[in-house]
User: Fold this.
Amino acid sequence: MKSRSLPALLLLLPALLLSATALAADRWYEVEVLVFANLNGDVNAERWPTNDSVTLALDGAIPAPNTAAPVGAGTSSGVPGKSTPSAQELLRLAAVAPAQYKLLDAFKSLSRSRNYRPLLHTAWRQPIGTGKNNFKVRLVGGKDYAGRYGVQGKLLTTGDEPATDGLWEIDGYVRLSAAKFLHAETELLFRRPSVPTTGTAVVAAPTTPAPAAAGSAAPNLTWQTGDASVASEDWLQFFKFNQSRRLKSNELHYFDHPMFGMMIVLRPLEPERSGEADSE
Assistant:
């Protein structure tokens, strides 16, 4: 029996070695993210898709620490595909205390600015690689409009479906991976009332600070938002971007949209190795 099983083991050996090598190559990073609104963004600069064509692929996303990201299944917030992360998945993110954030000065600058407003500032530690360590991290923050608008952005008085999990000002995910280089895939949705409202939205307590812009807009960027043809109607406009780009550790990277933006920096938590993922 042992001799007959030896060839099968030999056939499996390359796959086992490859899996072990990939696991060993995954490194832990501290990730800090800062999302902010552009208060001077011109919504009429171009025509956008309607709200019902703006979607988020949040399937399997693990909530970022220190955010309002809901943990649970359902589609009540207008973002189908949500699923409840397992306890093992949640352990793959380690929260960083707000006092240890490195972009606090940037957040303060944005908070004082007349042109920008911080929406979300958080940081965490995670392994970055391929396979199981190539996962989505859910980003949620800003105001919760669920008390006034429904999942399609219409007033609840119009019969729009309520968003029982929240209808946050910013929602989406970032997925970090590493092969030869570090890479970030982002999908973010920004929601904004089409006309000024008076305090019916619930303001989420700021978990911590947000960014100061750096760098230039990256390639591979597309954005979407709700139709802005009726400026006088009170409804919630949806703005979305998808962007993918290569990153380098210890550098601040800027993801741009006419209405909002995101800053992200990755810091390795272990000594650099030869041939590391973010080497040039």
Observations:
- Residues 39 and 113 are 10 Å apart (CA to CA).
- The radius of gyration is 21 Å.
